[in-house]
Design brief:
Largest sheet: 5 strands, antiparallel
CATH superfamily of the largest domain: PAS domain
Strand content: 5-15%
Radius of gyration: 20 Å
Number of strands: 7
Order of helices and strands: HHEEHEEHHEEHEHHHHH
Strand order of the largest sheet: 2-1-7-6-5
Helix content: 40-55%
CATH class of the largest domain: Alpha Beta
Number of domains: 2
CATH topology of the largest domain: Beta-Lactamase
Length: about 230
């Protein structure tokens, strides 16, 4: 399992870099817009991009959780008593220290440079990152003081089968296969998950290739992941 975790962390490094840059830009937009809209606008923006996020007040209490974050929650990472709870003791200590530091303007800039790796017992890790909400400096009375983003390592959910069917004129069975393939699953795994013979899966994939004008599975996955 440690080898799998190591591979996942290596594969997630570039994703984490892109996520960090992208999230910073979204928060800049949300900080400007918060003067005219809801203070939970940042979590809503992140949710629209399927990025899990939790909004915290100055005391570290949870004031908003987007839908993408609720999908991540399990016994190892969840909201408990209006607090973000992580079972991993080392990560819990780091989380508390980071949240305590967020009250200090001098230390807030260093927070986003130190992601917190939360080890889970039966799943790949979750990377937490704390983002001091810059809008708070201009409106101290506002509720949201910081955001926590969650980057879950491992396969991501594919686009909804119904949307794939409508976009590419796929049959319902072809769309279900395409949805599994979009997660990066090999055809054999997709056939097993859908409980269909491998030969049936192969024929459906061939049809999906034709309807999407693709020729290889990697090319198909790259196309399908553009569908929102």
């Amino acid at each position: 399992m440690s080898g799998a975790n190591s591979d996942a962390c290596q594969l997630g490094a570039e994703e984490e870099r892109i996520l960090t840059s992208f999230t910073r830009r979204l928060l800049e937009i949300a900080a400007v817009a918060s003067a005219r809209g809801p203070v939970t606008l940042a979590t809503s923006l992140l949710n629209s991009m399927r990025l899990p996020a939790i909004a915290l007040d100055r005391r570290g209490f949870v004031v908003d959780v987007n839908t993408a974050a609720t999908v991540v929650f399990d016994d190892d990472v969840k909201v408990k008593g209006k607090r973000l709870f992580v079972r991993d003791l080392e990560a819990r200590t780091l989380l508390k220290a980071s949240l305590d530091s967020s009250a200090s303007p001098v230390e807030t800039q260093s927070l986003i440079a130190e992601p917190i790796i939360v080890q889970r017992r039966h799943k790949l890790p979750v990377i937490l990152r704390i983002w001091p909400f810059e809008g708070a400096a201009h409106a101290p009375e506002q509720q949201v003081h910081a955001l926590v983003t969650l980057n879950v390592l491992g396969p991501k959910p594919g686009p909804p089968a119904a949307i794939l069917a409508k976009t590419f004129c796929l049959t319902a069975s072809e769309a279900k296969l395409a949805c599994v393939i979009a997660r990066g699953a090999p055809l054999q795994i997709a056939a097993r998950e859908l409980e269909i013979p491998w030969e049936t899966a192969r024929k459906r994939l061939k049809s999906v290739f034709a309807k999407t004008y693709t020729h290889r599975q990697s090319e198909l996955v790259a196309l399908l992941l553009q569908v929102e």
